[in-house]
Amino acid sequence: SSAGQVQEEVHPADSATINKPCKGADRAKNMKTVHSHHGKKKKVDLASLPSTALRCVPLSFLLRFTEHFGLWQHETHRVVSEVIVPRTAEKKCVWSDLDPDESLLLEGELGGPQIFVSHAWGNRWGLLVLALQAFAATNALSPARLTCWIDVFVLNQHDYMNELQQLSAVI
Question: Is the pTM of this model over 0.85?
Answer without folding.
Answer: no
